[in-house]
């Protein structure tokens, strides 16, 4: 790339970062950090553990947000200096180094720009994801397992921690459902655009006549409940059943009644957890999942009240992506139009393009509403 093109690219990146800085409002966040640091240094802070966790968690998020912006600004200034030096010295090696850094900065600034669009009430939280096989029989169960692996690979690509709470295996192949958490800043805001019905079209490996099969799987994404949410669940409102943990077989299958099924009697919501070896641990994890579902139910009720005041409903959450493996190869988001010609890469966790376009699409929909 010519020096004048690099200079123009750098100028565009500077404008983008300036817009991000305005949204992030670094001076205001620095003031909040000072206040929280003072609060966090109080000797009696941990007398109230819930409040202490809230303070330290918010302080950590604010510090991370400011550090990202400030680091990018410093690197952008350094790239500008490097480009000036390359121009003055007519140094091709320095110009190549500047071009490489500018390309890296472009990717990181674009990612941060998307993150600034995540301003929902729970967007900063960890995500609780549930995948369910829907219409399509054994192909749907296999498709649900493919989606579970896709999200696991996506988390691994980003070095995000994830934990599977429960898997219900189908009889022939695949899974009936799976529930897992992804633990990273903005995990819920990021993955929430994956919610909806996913559709797979392929030659069924389970059909001895080799016919094309269409199958469906549903993805639900909830914010993980925090200690400060105070989602109280009285013991009288739940029924707890225990059973043998199930699995695909082998020595690792638990043979004790450690798996837990919790039924919330007022709403009929049922959750299961069998990932842990201990019944007590499974009950605690199951209650966290139930709290998340009750939190989301309350949010949806508030949203429904607002939607009732609008002239048209919200179609968010219906069929949103098609994965076609036959007669051609394509994965396409039906909301944004974004597509990939490499389903293998997508199923291996390469879904950032879909997620980023989804976040931008959602913001446009919200602004248009």
UniProtKB/TrEMBL annotation:
<keyword id="KW-0488">Methylation</keyword>
<feature type="modified residue" description="N5-methylglutamine">
    <location>
        <position position="251"/>
    </location>
</feature>
<keyword id="KW-0648">Protein biosynthesis</keyword>
<dbReference type="Pfam" id="PF00472">
    <property type="entry name" value="RF-1"/>
</dbReference>
<comment type="similarity">
    <text>Belongs to the prokaryotic/mitochondrial release factor family.</text>
</comment>
<dbReference type="GO" id="GO:0016149">
    <property type="term" value="F:translation release factor activity, codon specific"/>
</dbReference>
<keyword id="KW-0175">Coiled coil</keyword>
<dbReference type="InterPro" id="IPR004374">
    <property type="entry name" value="PrfB"/>
</dbReference>
<dbReference type="InterPro" id="IPR005139">
    <property type="entry name" value="PCRF"/>
</dbReference>
<dbReference type="InterPro" id="IPR000352">
    <property type="entry name" value="Pep_chain_release_fac_I"/>
</dbReference>
<protein>
    <recommendedName>
        <fullName>Peptide chain release factor 2</fullName>
    </recommendedName>
</protein>
<comment type="function">
    <text>Peptide chain release factor 2 directs the termination of translation in response to the peptide chain termination codons UGA and UAA.</text>
</comment>
<dbReference type="Pfam" id="PF03462">
    <property type="entry name" value="PCRF"/>
</dbReference>
<feature type="coiled-coil region">
    <location>
        <begin position="69"/>
        <end position="115"/>
    </location>
</feature>
<dbReference type="GO" id="GO:0005737">
    <property type="term" value="C:cytoplasm"/>
</dbReference>
<keyword id="KW-0963">Cytoplasm</keyword>
<dbReference type="InterPro" id="IPR045853">
    <property type="entry name" value="Pep_chain_release_fac_I_sf"/>
</dbReference>
<feature type="domain" description="Prokaryotic-type class I peptide chain release factors">
    <location>
        <begin position="244"/>
        <end position="260"/>
    </location>
</feature>
